[in-house]
Amino acid sequence: MAFNEKIQTDFPQIAELYDGHKITYLDSAATNLKLKSVVDKLSYYYQKECANIHRGIHTLSEISTDKYENTRDLLQKFMNAEYREEIIFTSGTTNSINLVAKSWGEDNLNAGDEIIISEMEHHSNIVPWQMLCEKTGAILKVTPVNDEGELIFEEYTKLLSEKTKLVSIVYISNALGTINPVKEMILEAHKNGAKVLIDAAQAMSHVKVDVQELDCDFLALSAHKMFGPTGVGVLYGKKTLLDSMPPLFGGGDMIDTVTFEKTTYNTLPHKHEAGTPNIAGVIGFAPALEYITEQGFDKIAEYEHMLLLYGTEKLSSIPGLKIIGTAANKSAVISFVIKDIHAHDLATLLNKYHIAIRTGHHCTQPLMKKLGVSATARASFSIYNTKEDIDKLYDALKKIIELFG
Asked: Which residues are tagged catalytic?
């Protein structure tokens, strides 16, 4: 059973042959396969409408500007932002988080102030805050997770205090698939006067995110985990916060007036978008947003949950295989280890069976240490995967275990 009848034409890479074989792609947590409509949009811009945006008054510049800004409008609707100016284009989630750390963080945090993250964070949501703490004297606090890979909510609330200035938390763990109770976490943080940033990189193509309902202060995402192009990201921020933040980068488009004595800055969103952006990527992001909306989050969630349940049942039946991350509420990610077989060896051998998975620490070294493993194998699913893909993984793993005796 496939998600829809058109899936192979929607994602043409699925049908591609490599040395005469199709590759079973189970690495969507790293990056999604790309929609044909996205690739076509990128190609069309470069072949027929290529021009710089915002500052040109000729036809091609006006066309490109309109399409670029149309993506901003789509994103406003997609995440239900109150204002279109709250959508800031960046190069990705990492860039968005660093923008908040450098601009808002350095302007608002002082020695003794506290930032709260969790043990399951991606390095991109750890390192920028460590750097900020080193610069300002702020203190980083870490919410623990339990053996199932779930954030311990009671411990989180204990960490909150009047010293807490920011909570930065992942919505869905890239390493385990755990879905965090972000709405409740935001509510508790706000009771203590703290701002909240949500790392939604893994969430945006799997669950409906309404920033006004969540009441998050910042949210970061990447287009490439939403069937869109690489090198495109978004920072959502409440308008008052973005307005108060000094620009991180200086250059073209973020200015109002420039003299050798003083520069004044442009209005939102351009204030935080210095220089020529990834115009083609932003324009190419639009079909991905339209596609996800057209398919519907309820339908996507139902299908991916079916894959998760089926995959969990199949892999759990393999002797010696242990699933790492068994949260009650999780997305379609299965991380696992097999006794006496290193994860890297598993990936190498699975590649011989034309199966693509991810192995390693998944940019979550503190989490791996907490769970007592150096690395895991990770199979992550999306709407273009099927039960047959999971069967292929199951059969290949059985053969590999036999090979190791």
From this structure: 363
